[in-house]
Specification:
The protein has about 160 residues and is of the alpha+beta class. It has 4 helices and 7 strands, in the order H-H-E-E-E-E-H-H-E-E-E. Helix 3 crosses helix 4.
Length: about 160
């Protein structure tokens, strides 16, 4: 009889601990929302537009598309931006500043990495360039009318 009571108590205790652990864990979408709000408050012209599933869409005058994606298969955060094929320095500065805030690296390093990736596209290297700079994975692509960059950091870093 006593062993049954101990077993029931231990099962109830384990269930209570599991319930407390699940209720205390923060939602993953909150991290994405916090990053989007931080970008909007610290970079001039950035506004949070809308949120759909695990992507927060932002707006800025220097971009056609601007978003932050959360929880991909191989990454925890992704910064994506698209502009005209002939991008302006404001675009690379914006992406660099946003990458610096999102991935917590120095702003000059982030601007240098994004500018290098965008400028490498061309006749010699093609319209799709993948590179790694300061533990960030950058993939730049361009079409006849647009240029885009996606900046991620792996989950294991």
């Amino acid at each position: 009889m006593a062993s049954r009571r101990q077993f029931r108590r231990s099962v109830l205790f384990a269930a209570a601990l599991a319930l407390a652990a699940f209720s205390a864990s923060p939602a993953r979408a909150d991290r994405c929302d916090d990053v989007a709000k931080q970008l909007a408050s610290q970079i001039d012209g950035v506004k949070v537009n809308l949120k759909a599933r695990n992507i927060v869409y932002l707006t800025h005058p220097a971009t056609k598309e601007f978003s932050i994606g959360c929880r991909g298969q191989n990454y925890s955060l992704e910064l994506y931006a698209k502009t005209d094929r002939k991008f302006k320095p404001e675009f690379s500065n914006l992406v660099g500043a946003a990458a610096a805030l999102v991935f917590t690296i120095p702003k000059p390093d982030a601007v240098t990495g994004t500018t290098r990736c965008l400028k490498r596209m061309g006749i010699l290297r093609g319209d799709k360039v993948s590179m790694r700079y300061r533990r960030l994975n950058m993939e730049c692509t361009r079409t006849k009318t647009e240029a885009a960059i996606a900046v991620t950091r792996g989950k294991d870093e």
